[in-house]
Amino acid sequence: MFEAITDEEQRGQVGIGTLIVFIAMVLVAAIAAGVLINTAGFLQTQAEATGEESTSQVSDRLQVVSTSGTVNDTNQKIEKLTFIVATSPGSGAVDLNQTTVEFVGEGGQDRFEVQSSNISDIIGTSGDVLTDNSDRKELEFTISDLEYNGANLDEDERVTVTFTTASGASTVKEIRVPTTITTEDSSVRL
C-alpha cells in the first residue's frame, strides 16, 4: 500500500516542496488578513465620522425661546423682530456668526448670515457662541434692512424664519403678526 522511498535525495525534495507550498499559503493568508484588517479600520473610521456628522446635523440646532416684534409708532407695523435663542438639548456649541437666517413670506425672501451687530448677550458666556443649554442670546433684525420688500410687517402677515447652524441643523419658526395692532402697543409677542 505505501511505497517506501529508498533514495534519500528524493525524500528531501518532497519535504522541501511541501515546506515551500506551506510557506506560500501562510504568506497569502497573512496578506489577506492584512488587507481585511486595513479595510475594517478604514470602514470603522468612516462610520465614526459619518455618525458624528449625522449627530451634529440633528442635535446642533438652535431653539427659539421667544419671539417679539417692535411696533413702529407712525404706522403700527412691525419694524424689528427679536428672537431669544438657546441651544437645543444635547447640542454642542453653536457659533451664531456661522448661522444662516432665511426669511420667507408675503414680502419676498431673504437669506443672510447672522452678524455680531445682530447679537446681544442675555444669559451665559460673552461672545457670539452658545456653549451651554442655559446660555441665551438675543438676535434682532430690522425688517427694512432685509431684502424682504424693504417694508415693515403688516397686521396678520405671516413669515417663516429658518435658522441653519454651521453643522446644517435647521430650526423653523413660523411668525404671525397679530390681526390688530393698536397705538398703545410698542412691542408684541409673535
UniProtKB/TrEMBL annotation:
One of its GO terms (cellular component) is archaeal-type flagellum. One of its GO terms (molecular function) is structural molecule activity. InterPro entries: Flagellin/pilin_N_arc, Flagellin_arc-type. Keywords: Archaeal flagellum, Cell projection, Cilium, Flagellum, Membrane, Transmembrane, Transmembrane helix. GO terms for biological process: archaeal or bacterial-type flagellum-dependent cell motility. The keyword Transmembrane applies. Belongs to the archaeal flagellin family. This is Flagellin. The lineage of its organism: Archaea, Methanobacteriati, Methanobacteriota, Stenosarchaea group, Halobacteria.
